């Protein structure tokens, strides 16, 4: 298993017993990812999804290294890859699974007007689309409103929740396939003010309201 960061480069490893007249084929299902023979790259039949994004380290091939550098990793790159290397002496097949990880951001914002109190839970730049749920105390509750946006293949989601009882803690949970995050809001005192950390102010694109009488706690519920 190899983990690649979205929009970054990653290396798919493939080692083989050194030999002569190397023939290298990288494939993902039926897609031709990269081919090499006659001591040069052969890219005429390369799948368009991988055009200008693959690189073999030619200087390392004689030593038995056919690892592939994949540039500008995207979510559709995720999945199993096969590396075949044939020489006059041996044949080698290596299977590599690529998992793509997106650098997502999460935030919880508190808003108060003369008539209502509101919590807004944000998930920015995730893949796939996240699911957001709420707890009031230990009871599941329905969100008040929701808004979704797309940036290419990435999703951003905002879920709103009205605060009906300030004596209860409220918890926002953001669910993704490989991880879950939670944020908790509780009332602390009438005169206490807290502001969002700078990194969260940036990703909320201008939402810079002070957090009046709020305690925000983020916890990593589960990863795997």
In words, what does this structure look like?
- The chain has 224 residues and is mostly beta strands.
- The chain contains one helix and 20 strands.
- The chain has one helix spanning 198-203; strands at residues 2-5, 10-12, 23-28, 31-37, 40-41, 54-56, 68-70, 79-86, 91-101, 105-112, 117-126, 131-136, 139-141, 145-151, 154-162, 170-175, 179-186, 193-194, 211-212, 215-223.
- The protein has a six-stranded mixed β-sheet with strand order 1-9-8-3-4-5, with no helix packed on it. A five-stranded antiparallel β-sheet has the order 13-12-16-17-20, with no helix packed on it. It has a four-stranded antiparallel β-sheet with strand order 10-11-15-14, with no helix packed on it.
- Strand 4 and strand 5 form a beta hairpin.
- Residues 191-224 have low confidence and may be disordered.
Query: In the CATH hierarchy, what is the architecture of the largest domain at level 2?
Result: Sandwich
Q: How much is the average pLDDT?
A: 85
Q: Tell me the total number of β-strands.
A: 20
N-to-C CA distance: 13 Å
Radius of gyration: 24 Å
- Find the CATH superfamily of the largest domain: Immunoglobulins
What class, by secondary structure content?
Answer: mainly beta
């Amino acid at each position: 298993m190899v983990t690649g960061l979205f929009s970054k480069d990653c290396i798919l490893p493939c080692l083989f017993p050194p030999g002569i007249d190397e023939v290298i084929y990288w494939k993902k299902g039926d897609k031709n990812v990269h081919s090499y023979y006659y001591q040069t790259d052969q890219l005429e039949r390369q799948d368009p999804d991988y055009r200008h994004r693959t690189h073999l380290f030619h200087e390392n091939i004689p030593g038995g290294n056919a690892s592939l550098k994949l540039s500008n990793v995207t979510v559709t790159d995720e999945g199993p890859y096969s590396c075949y290397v044939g020489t006059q002496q041996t044949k080698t097949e290596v299977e590599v699974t690529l998992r793509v990880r997106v650098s997502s951001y999460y935030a919880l914002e508190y808003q108060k007007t003369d008539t209502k109190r509101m919590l807004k839970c944000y998930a920015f730049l995730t893949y796939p689309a996240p699911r957001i749920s709420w707890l009031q105390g230990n009871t599941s509750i329905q969100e008040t409103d929701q808004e979704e946006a797309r940036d290419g293949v990435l999703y951003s989601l905002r879920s709103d929740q009205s605060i009906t009882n300030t004596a209860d803690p409220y918890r926002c949970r953001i669910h993704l396939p490989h991880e879950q995050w939670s944020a908790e809001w509780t009332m602390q005192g009438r005169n206490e003010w807290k502001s969002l950390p700078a990194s969260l102010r940036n990703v909320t694109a201008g939402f810079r309201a002070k957090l009046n009488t709020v305690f925000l706690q983020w916890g990593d519920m589960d990863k795997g």
